[in-house]
Design goal:
- InterPro entries: Adenine_deam_C, Amidohydro-rel, Metal-dep_hydrolase_composite, Metal_Hydrolase.
- Belongs to the metallo-dependent hydrolases superfamily. Adenine deaminase family.
- The protein has about 575 residues and is an alpha/beta fold.
- Strands 1, 2, 3, 4, 5, 14, 15, 16 and 17 form a nine-stranded mixed β-sheet that branches.
- The relative contact order is 0.12.
């Protein structure tokens, strides 16, 4: 049987000996103003810590304090470490770089998407890969995906009964989802339903993905086993989910910065308490995190009039309760992990001290500990051994993709002559090619609404891990591809033969191994470069990711071809090279 608890019997005996005075704690936070989540109130007391565990919280001071560090907390406030419950840890950054950066503003627990690890690792290596995160001073938990949210050629080989069950059996996997393939469920996919039942049998939560869903659809999803959802975009949509018994995570992200409006609309509807909600940044792109992670969302909630205790609970205790781990973390109480944030004021959720599993991540506003890099060697480098040819850049498709916003698209009828070497820069249509990362197949069309004055862009960053090449000039597109190939993955922009920006993505061609601060700068510059050339939206990274994502309307470019999401049909199939 796998060990599901971090402390063995001898540890537990040692912890209780501290209360008897025969063993000293390693750290005491003296006279702390701390958040008691059980009582939902601020209390004054002493927090005894032994290595990675809180062994006592209350009025008493240890009788044995030999070699114990004692810190006076009279003028500080202590809250539980923040939990990000819905992380997509591959938006150029990687699970390690994002977590290390987030820890400096108090977010020290991460519940993460496993999709890219499934796609980038050889079969059966993804689950062993995540085990190394268990030794981190930060806390990592995972989802298990039940679908790919695109049209993969070999999806049945990736999502198998055995693999899904193995993930659901792992104690660090807390949920199944997010369930972007719920239309398949509605249409009678009993294999998917059986996996959901298996998740329930393993006491895992099931996260929906239900943007714009009707009340009846939400009720059906609840009957099938969905337990929560994070896709509500209005107060009314939140209310409907609550009425149908779903747990609701309020989102504030780079493409859906909805939290102020959601709070306002819920208060107008007469909501009495926010204590049971959760908060998420929903895998935002790097620049969004310049101002913080969960601390930023707590601050917004407080500014919008949410009681500070409820605001802190939405990023800690409420999440821990929902995922059935409040006996371990999410609150300041005896027996929990020593994962705490120390604040100057309840009104300012950005901590000056951060403690995670008893280790200082930040002390007196200074970085103290760097976490260990995972071994990325199981993820193969993007080693492209084929050449993008002129013949690959044939664009005779009658139907194109038009961008409505960052991520929503619709079909349009192509009227211009796409046989030329370069498109006119007076309009916003670009050549668009999706090509297999192994060079086996391709699908091409035009993309309207991305840029007016961009020669070429190549990206190995996509939802399926295949290569996107787009732009006005076929020559520049090939040059961008060649540079991306040299980098072994990345996003490269070229205009009139000149390299204008690049972001190396050395981990499988999808994630960077650079620190988060550099990734933020790189992504910020990419936005500037593209906006200077006519990109009219806010988040080009999400645009690239979702060009092949079939969980959003209306038309996508996928491994199977040009795909109509609403009709669930391939309009034009991929062709072999």
């Amino acid at each position: 049987m796998k060990q599901r608890f971090p402390w063995k019997i001898q540890h537990l005996r040692q912890h209780t000996a501290i209360l008897d005075g025969s063993v000293a704690p390693t750290l005491v936070l003296k006279d702390a103003n701390y958040l008691n989540s059980s009582l939902k109130m601020w209390q004054k007391g002493n927090i005894w810590i032994y290595k990675d565990r809180i062994v006592y919280v209350g009025k008493d001071f240890p009788s044995n304090s030999k070699n114990c560090e004692i810190i006076d907390m009279t003028n500080n406030w202590v809250v539980p470490g923040y939990i990000e419950p819905h992380v997509h840890p591959f938006q150029l950054y990687n699970p390690h770089s994002f977590a290390e950066y987030a820890s400096q503003t108090g977010t020290t627990t991460f519940i993460q998407d496993n999709l890219m690890l499934l796609l980038l690792n050889d079969k059966k290596k993804a689950l062993p890969f995540i085990q190394q995160f268990k030794s981190s001073p930060l806390s990592f938990y995972w989802w298990t995906r039940l679908d790919s949210q695109t049209e993969l050629v070999e999806e049945d080989e990736l999502f198998t009964n055995g693999e899904i069950r193995n993930w659901l059996d792992d104690p660090s996997v807390l949920l199944a989802g997010e369930l972007t393939s719920w239309p398949r469920l509605m249409d009678g996919d009993d294999l998917l339903l059986s996996w959901m039942q298996e998740a329930k049998l393993n006491y895992k939560r099931i996260e929906g993905h239900l943007p714009g869903a009707s009340e009846k659809t939400i009720a059906k999803m609840t009957l099938f086993g969905v337990t929560g959802d994070h896709e509500a975009m209005t107060g009314d949509e939140v209310w409907t989910r609550l009425e149908q018994g779903l747990a609701v995570t309020l989102r504030h992200s780079s493409i859906r910065p909805d939290l102020p409006r959601l709070i306002k609309e819920l208060k107008e509807k007469g909501l009495r308490s926010f204590d049971n909600f959760m908060l998420t940044t929903d895998g935002s792109t790097p620049t969004f995190y310049k101002e913080g992670v969960m601390d930023r969302l707590i601050s917004i909630a407080i500014e919008e009039g949410v009681d500070p205790i409820e605001a802190y609970h939405m990023a800690s205790f409420s999440i821990a309760k929902y995922y059935r781990m409040e006996f371990m973390q999410g609150m300041i109480a005896t027996g929990r992990m020593a994962t705490l944030n120390i604040l100057t004021s309840p009104q300012n959720p950005t901590p000056v001290f951060v403690l995670s599993k008893g280790q200082w991540m930040k002390r007196d506003e200074e970085l103290v500990s760097n976490t260990k890099q995972p071994d990325w060697s199981t993820i193969k480098a993007l080693d492209i051994d084929w050449v993008l040819q002129e013949d690959d850049l044939q664009f005779s498709m009658p139907c194109g993709i038009e961008m409505i916003n960052n991520v929503i698209t619709k079909p349009y009828s192509i009227q211009l002559d796409a046989s030329r070497e370069e498109l006119n820069r007076s309009n916003d249509e670009c050549f668009l090619l999706l090509i297999d990362r192994n060079g086996k197949w391709k699908i091409s069309t035009l993309l309207k609404g991305f840029a007016r004055d961009l020669g070429g862009l190549a990206s190995s960053y996509s939802n399926s891990g295949d290569i996107i090449v787009l732009g006005k000039s076929k020559k520049d597109m090939i040059a961008a591809f060649e540079r991306m190939k040299q980098l072994q993955g990345g996003i490269v922009a070229v205009d009139q033969g000149e390299l204008i920006h690049e972001i190396p993505l050395s981990i499988g061609g999808v994630m960077s191994n650079d620190p988060m601060e550099k990734i933020i700068d790189d992504e910020s510059r990419l936005r500037e470069v593209l906006q200077e050339r006519g990109y009219m939206h806010e988040d080009p990274v999400y645009t690239l990711l979702f060009l092949s994502s079939t969980h959003l309307p209306y038309i996508r470019i996928t491994q199977r071809g040009l795909y109509d999401v609403k009709k669930k049909t391939v309009l034009f199939p991929t062709i072999m090279r």
